[in-house]
């Protein structure tokens, strides 16, 4: 079965984590997000996959190559300039000659894809769209269906007063190849605003497949952190590197943990991490390879990418620290702070309230004080 994954967006809302790498390559529990998606597709025998790439394409291609290392066959459809979700599918038209799946490249879901395909076939649909319930649908595309599942209306980001359903577009579709004729070539086209409303208008068989399976879009930092939380708490199922060494604690080889350090799971330690004297790591927390945690330092509900160095008596809570960031003694980082790669923060600073530091930022000692 074929699928196309849309991975060409710039991931602006996830900045600064996406300044150096595209959103599908951000690590999720120490492995690129896209690898988690491929795991899920493989489980449902979807192994012939086209990646529609545009932003930082070489970061994706140089990691995944032809997919053989990941148990799938990967090819690439490259856009010179972003063509949008529909334009990207149209760009891959020569390779799409049978029923195919389309995935947004930032969705993590346990949705039963095999069942969705059976639903599509039973209904003799030309297009099917997965629908997931959310508490506040105003930031999403709301989809109204009748009792048979026929899509009746497709409303992008409705205002609160006009919301009529809390089932939203889950960013997973099945399309018949003849629909590609409805997408104009070589122009920017969004399926959400172009193709889908057109299908509704023209009465082309278009069905909504409702599912209560786990679903999250990692497009914003809070949800990126939430996905880690949910995987480590067992709410979302994912495979990640590391061996289980105790209840809710996994680690890769080469870690050195001081006997006085406390690790309270769920915690995942990448390879070669060093945890200092009296340090405290409490979950759900993930440390990437090569992190060094200084004496007396505490890390709580946080995600550290690779080679992050924390000095003595540092506190990191509910925040994300990018590759090679270095934090001085007694600094406090909390409340959804997002530090990108290669940031250097001196000692005795307090970073909180969702502060975002761009790659290579430097903050001197005691500049943002308590
Ligand atoms: P923001 O800039 O934060 O909106 O993120 P985004 O554009 O990367 O993601 P968005 O949620 O808007 O798009 C949904 C999916 O479609 C993501 O996986 C994007 O990578 C992908 N996508 C969006 N625009 C394009 C495009 O022009 N070309 C391709 N190939 N993919 C796209």
List keywords for this structure.
370 residues; alpha/beta; Spore Coat Polysaccharide Biosynthesis Protein SpsA, Chain A; UDP N-Acetylglucosamine Acyltransferase, domain 1; 2 domains; 8-stranded mixed beta sheet; 7-stranded mixed beta sheet; 6 helices; 32 strands; elongated; binds guanosine-5'-triphosphate
Report on this model:
By secondary structure, the chain is of the alpha/beta class. The protein folds into two domains: 2-232, Spore Coat Polysaccharide Biosynthesis Protein SpsA, Chain A (Alpha-Beta Complex), CATH 3.90.550.10; 243-363, UDP N-Acetylglucosamine Acyltransferase, domain 1, CATH 2.160.10. Helices cover 15% and strands 30% of the residues. The chain has helices at residues 33-43, 57-64, 84-91, 113-122, 195-202, 221-232, and strands at residues 2-6, 48-53, 73-78, 100-104, 107-109, 127-133, 141-145, 151-156, 167-175, 206-210, 215-217, 243-246, 249-251, 256-257, 262-264, 267-269, 274-275, 280-282, 285-287, 292-293, 298-300, 303-304, 309-310, 315-317, 320-321, 326-327, 332-333, 338-339, 344-345, 350-351, 356-357, 362-363. The strands form six sheets. An eight-stranded mixed sheet has the order 12-13-16-19-22-25-28-31. A seven-stranded mixed sheet has the order 3-2-1-4-9-6-10, with helices on both faces. It has a seven-stranded parallel sheet with strand order 14-17-20-23-26-29-32, with no helix packed on it. Helix 1 links the parallel strand 1 (2-6) and strand 2. The longest helix is centred in the middle third of the chain and has 12 residues, at 221-232. The chain is elongated. Bound molecules: guanosine-5'-triphosphate.
């Amino acid at each position: 079965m074929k699928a196309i994954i849309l991975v060409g967006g710039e991931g602006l809302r996830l900045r600064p984590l996406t300044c150096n790498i595209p959103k599908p390559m951000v690590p999720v529990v120490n492995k690129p997000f896209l690898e988690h998606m491929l795991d899920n597709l493989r489980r449902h025998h979807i192994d012939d996959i086209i990646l529609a790439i545009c932003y930082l394409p070489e970061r994706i291609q140089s990691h995944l190559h032809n997919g053989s290392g990941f148990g799938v066959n990967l090819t690439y459809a490259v856009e010179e300039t972003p063509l949008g979700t529909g334009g990207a599918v149209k760009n891959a038209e020569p390779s799409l000659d049978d029923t195919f799946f389309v995935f947004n490249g930032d969705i993590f879901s346990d949705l039963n894809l095999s069942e969705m395909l059976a639903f599509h076939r039973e209904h003799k649909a030309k297009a099917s769209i997965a629908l997931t319930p959310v508490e506040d649908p105003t930031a999403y595309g709301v989809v109204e269906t009748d009792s048979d599942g026929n899509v009746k209306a497709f409303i992008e980001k409705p205002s609160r007063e006009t919301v009529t359903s809390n089932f939203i577009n889950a960013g997973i579709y099945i399309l018949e190849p003849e629909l590609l004729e409805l997408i104009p070539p070589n122009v920017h086209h969004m399926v959400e605003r172009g193709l889908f409303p057109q299908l509704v208008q023209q009465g082309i068989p278009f069905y909504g497949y409702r599912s209560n399976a786990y679903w999250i879009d990692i497009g914003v930092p809070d949800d990126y952190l939430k996905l880690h939380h949910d995987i480590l708490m067992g709410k979302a199922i994912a495979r990640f590197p590391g061996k289980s060494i105790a209840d809710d604690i996994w680690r890769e080889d080469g870690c050195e943990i001081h006997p006085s350090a406390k690790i309270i799971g769920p915690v995942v330690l990448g390879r070669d991490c060093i945890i200092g004297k009296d340090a405290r790591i409490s979950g759900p927390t993930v440390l990437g390879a090569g992190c060094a945690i200084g004496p007396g330092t505490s890390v709580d509900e946080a995600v550290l990418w690779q080679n992050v160095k924390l000095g003595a008596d540092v506190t990191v809570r509910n925040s994300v620290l990018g590759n090679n960031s270095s934090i001085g003694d007694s600094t406090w980082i909390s409340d959804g702070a997002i530090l990108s790669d290669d940031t250097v923060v001196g000692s005795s600073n307090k970073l909180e309230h969702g502060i975002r530091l761009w790659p290579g930022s430097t903050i001197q000692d005691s500049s943002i004080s308590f």
